[in-house]
Amino acid sequence: MKAITINSYGSSEVLNLDTRQPLPVVGPHDILVRNKATSVNPIDVMKREGYGRPVFEKKRQVKFPWILGNDTAGIVEKVGKKATRFKAGDEVFSAPGIHRQGTWAEYAAVDEKEAAFKPKNLSFEEAASIPYVAMTSWKALVHHAKITPVKASGKKVLVHAGSGGVGTFAIQLLKAWGCHVAATCSTRNIELVEELGADTIIDYTVTDFTRELKDYDVVFDTIGHKVAGHEEKSISILKQNGTAAYVSIVHPMLSIITDNGLLAGVPKMGLALLSNKFKNRGIRYCWSVFSPNGKALEQVRQHLEVQKIKPVIDRVYPLDQMAEANTYVETGRARGKVVIRID
């Protein structure tokens, strides 16, 4: 099959269009998906450069060649012997787990528990823009921040980087559940974030969000420790009553393991997290990571079909322009998602 592979870590120049990759092995609970579209997430670019390599190498077992990619939308070609949810010909979308090859290819094997039916009203390209950012948001907001449809109404949530892939999805999900949502963005993205339904918009290029926001229930941070003092400022706007939550998806967890290796890195990472929890013991302090979840994706599908959530796509590239797509994502200026069309 045709796939984008890497044989070493590095810049977009390490990306190869390989036309002779073997088809994925289909396990008993898997479905084989003929991919029609995928996407490029910032995490893909980071993994291409070597971020988290001790963890990802251990998970996938084969070091190289490596097929990256975390989103798929396509058609079921084959089902495993014990797979029961889908049949050949079904249209599905998914953000598969990290223990196997990725989705920048013509085919991907996906555990059926990690997939859902593609929304009927979306194209494959639109559907491929959703799963990874949806499941990243779901893990942060539902698992860590404890926001659910029945407990969300009236909750005040700040979403940082509201015009990015995760931000554009999170704003819409939270609004669909009845939250009051504030979001930060640059001047050029104010109109987009407003269209997504944010109640309060902070232009971070001219306004310090701590001067405008206070007594929030949740901060969903997609910027995190990369900006000095940002985490502390975000925590300062939360209610200090023991119920508020700070949840970051940009944290040093994998960096610590990358720098120190698995054996030494895991304990160091655990100590770093515990130290931050202790320092911020007036709130719930959490580091969140993506987790596949087909049942949650099914709930997201329902929101998409009634248009409470809409895909936000900046650009679409063909598979053979993967390097250009990576380079664009690296600029950090994408509004919503960058999608890859697979013919």
From TrEMBL:
GO MF assignments: oxidoreductase activity; zinc ion binding
Domain Enoyl reductase (ER) stretches: 10-340
Pfam families reported in the protein's UniProt record: ADH_N (PF08240), ADH_zinc_N_2 (PF13602)
InterPro entries (UniProt xref): ADH-like_N (IPR013154), ER (IPR020843), GroES-like_sf (IPR011032), NAD(P)-bd_dom_sf (IPR036291), Quin_OxRdtase/zeta-crystal_CS (IPR002364), YIM1/Zinc_Alcohol_DH_Fams (IPR050700)
UniProtKB keywords: Oxidoreductase, Transit peptide
Transit peptide among keywords: yes
UniProt xrefs under PROSITE patterns: QOR_ZETA_CRYSTAL
Domain of life the protein comes from: Bacteria
Family label: Belongs to the zinc-containing alcohol dehydrogenase family. Quinone oxidoreductase subfamily.
Entry protein name: NADPH:quinone reductase
